[in-house]
Amino acid sequence: MWPDSPGSGLLFLYGPNLESLGTIDVSTPLGGAPRGATATCTGLAAPGRDGRTVYVRAGSGSRFSLYPRQPARLLVVDVVSRALLRTIDLDGFGLGFLFVSAR
Asked: Starting from the edge strand earliest in sequence, which strands make up the sheet with 71-78, in order?
């Protein structure tokens, strides 16, 4: 979607047979609007070890986009309650890689 749109600002959930299970809005809790210019720009997600937590990278580049820039963050999302639990601010901008340790 870059550079024309930050994306939907929604996380799409799927079951084991790839059936749609709905969405989680991660934009509104962060002051944005889903499917708009202020939608939270998200990237890859990684599952937590507890089976209900997902870690999602978020942020945009610092320049060359047609929508407001967003600082790099890690979103911690509970997929059972479908809620954004917390955000962890990262330095700078952009969407880096995401790894979850097995420890």
From this structure: 42-47, 53-58, 71-78, 83-93
